[in-house]
Amino acid sequence: MIEERVAYGDHPLQQVLLCLPEDGAEGARLVVMFPGGGWRSGDPDRFRFFAEPLVGHGLPVALVGYRAVPEHVFPAQRDDALDGFAAALAAGAERGLRPDGAVLGGQSAGAHLAALVAYDRGAREERGIGEEAIGGLLSISGPLDLRVRGGRELDNLVSDLVGHGPPWDEADPARFVRGDELWPVLCLHGGRDPLVPLGSAAAFVARFEESSPGLARLLVEPEAEHSSLLTMLAQGTTPLAGTMLEWIEALSDVS
């Protein structure tokens, strides 16, 4: 795996870690991922273990870091996700990758940010990022509909994210779904997740059913908890790992 770093801002966490196959992936689309950690750890290095098996299958991956809570609060994380996404696409294009149709995703807080990049059109279009830049959304254990409340721990994390600034709905990905989006969505969730309720992903997927049946899918690993699902996917110890890989490969033009 070839690793390169691209800074998109002055803060140490405002960086993209490119993870590329040694034999290249020219003409492929990027897989752009945001790390989780309750919006408190935006370090892309923490997500390298998840990128390695994807790169091993010939997929080019960009891990996008972002400024963390509590020093920085929303919308800093959303803005970094957007700027980092744009920087990842530009860096990929310089290396022969396609600048459109990126698979956009993340785990937990990272999935939340990926969904905001995809569906907060106003913020995205302010940066000149069109819908053609996105080919699909992958959510792993993501809090995608903040109206579906979890326990006190998740409530506290979201409260810390928004601080004394905007209300929760301005940070809620589900609020921005209009129903006319065209790219597919794959949500993976643990059946024993004690932090982010399964209903959050289910409610998000349900928003697509009336206008675009089948566009969004929710798959559940019954034995997985919140963070263990990511480990199971990286290690291939759940059938969902193969499903996820096939889904990403189909969108990335990698066979």
Q: Categorize the overall geometry.
A: globular
Instruction: Please give the number of β-strands.
Output: 8
Helix count equals 8
What's the Cα radius of gyration?
16 Å
**CATH-level-4 superfamily name:** Alpha/Beta hydrolase fold, catalytic domain
Structural class: alpha/beta
CATH architecture: 3-Layer(aba) Sandwich
Catalogue the unreliable spans. none
**Mean pLDDT across every amino acid position:** 95
Overview of this structure, please?
The relative contact order is 0.15. The chain has a single domain (2-252), classed as Alpha/Beta hydrolase fold, catalytic domain (Rossmann fold), CATH 3.40.50. The protein contains 8 helices and 8 strands. By secondary structure, the protein is α/β, with parallel strands linked by helices. Helices cover 35% and strands 20% of the residues. It is globular. Strands 1-2-4-3-5-6-7-8 form an 8-stranded mixed β-sheet, sandwiched between helices. Helix 5 links the parallel strand 6 (134-140) and strand 7.
Short description:
With 255 residues, the chain is α/β, with parallel strands linked by helices.
Question: What's the structural blueprint in terms of helices and strands?
Answer:
Layout: E1 2-7, E2 15-20, E3 29-34, H1 48-56, E4 61-64, H2 76-94, E5 98-107, H3 109-119, H4 121-126, E6 134-140, H5 152-162, E7 185-190, H6 198-209, E8 216-221, H7 228-235, H8 239-252
Parallel strand pairs: 3-4, 3-5, 5-6, 6-7, 7-8
Antiparallel strand pairs: 1-2, 2-4
